[in-house]
Amino acid sequence: MSEAIVDLKRCIKQYRDADNEIRVLNKMVYEKREARKIVEMELCDLVKLPEFAGYDKLKIEDDGSTIKIQKPETYSKPWNLSKKDLQTILGSYFASTAMPNAQSCYDYICNDRKAKLVATEFAFTRIVAEEDT
User: Is the residue at 4 inside a domain?
Assistant: First the structure.
C-alpha cells in the first residue's frame, strides 16, 4: 500500500474516534442539562416562597460561586430575528412612519423585540469565582 493510503486510513480512524467521543460527550451534556432543568424547576418553586422574595443571588460557600436569580418581568430574554419576523416588523414600521430613517427603524425593531421578550419565568445563572492563575 502506498504511504498516502496508509495516512488516509489513519486520518479516517482518528476522525471516527474523535467523532465517537464527541457523540458520547454530547449525550452526557444533554443528560446533564436535563438534570439541571429539573433542579431549576425545584429551585424556582423554592425562591417563589415569601421568605426568599428579597433574594437576588445565592452564594455557594464551598466554591465561592454565586447563583444569580432573575425574577419574572425584570429582564428580557436574549433575542434573534428571523427573516420572516424582520419582514413583518419592517412592514409595520414603514406603514406607520411618515418620515422613516435608519435610527428610528433600529429603535422600532429593538422596542418591538424587547416588548415581546420580557421574561415570564425565573432564570438562574451561576457565576463562577475567578481563580488566581
Answer: yes
Separation of CA 114 from chain center? 16
Q: Which domain holds residue 14?
A: 1-47
Residues 6+ apart with CB under 8 A from 50: none
Q: How far is CA 20 from CA 8, 24, 29, 30, 55, in A?
A: 18, 6, 14, 15, 43
The total of other beta-carbon atoms located within 10 Å of residue 37's CB is 9
How many structural domains compose the chain? 1
Residue with cell 419582514: 87
Q: Is 124 within the bounds of a domain?
A: no
Whole-structure pTM value: 0.68
Three-state SS at 55: coil
Instruction: Decide: 95 and 36 in contact? Cβ < 8 Å.
Output: no
Query: Considering the domain boundaries, does residue 65 fall inside one?
Result: no
pLDDT single digits (tens) 72-116: 988 888 888 899 999 999 999 999 888 889 999 999 999 988 888
Whether 20 maps to a domain, the answer reads yes
